[in-house]
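TA notes, week 10

Several of you asked for a full example with nothing omitted. So below is the full record: structure tokens for the whole chain, then the designed sequence directly under it. When grading your own attempts, check the secondary structure regions first.
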């Protein structure tokens, strides 16, 4: 499907979501996954809540990165740095785009590659339907 706002999307029948890509402020795009599960939306439609969240995220990559640093920098420096502590700016710089998963309700998870901050584990930022940051986590 070629969506008017999101471009080329492909339906994944096994996961009940649309797959595409989304470029935010980074040079590299994020993989984009938009859930459209049976019983939560009709005819695989992308909900208005999901669309609002995607539009909001287009301008919030830097905020997501800073939030991840605020929440996880101390964890990195205390437990994962082997004594080589880094600044918040370095933490933010090392995150790389991975994927964005948007639920029908507008809840979203933004996933970053960790730039070896957590020995290859990803960094996730969870965002509520209202755009508020809920938590940042080390994944995997």
């Amino acid at each position: 499907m070629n969506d008017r706002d999101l471009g080329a999307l492909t339906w994944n029948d096994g996961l009940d979501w649309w797959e595409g890509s989304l470029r935010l402020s980074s040079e590299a795009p994020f993989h984009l996954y938009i859930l459209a599960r049976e019983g939560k939306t009709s005819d695989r439609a992308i909900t208005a809540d999901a669309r609002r969240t995607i539009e909001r995220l287009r301008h919030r990559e830097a905020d997501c990165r800073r939030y991840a640093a605020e929440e996880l920098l101390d964890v990195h420096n205390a437990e994962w740095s082997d004594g080589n502590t880094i600044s918040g700016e370095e933490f933010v710089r090392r995150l790389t785009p991975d994927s964005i998963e948007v639920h029908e309700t507008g809840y979203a998870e933004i996933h970053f590659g960790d730039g070896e901050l957590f020995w290859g584990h990803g960094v996730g930022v969870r965002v509520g339907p209202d755009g508020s940051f809920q938590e940042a986590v080390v994944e995997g």
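The longest strand covers residues 96-102. Use that as a sanity check on your answer.
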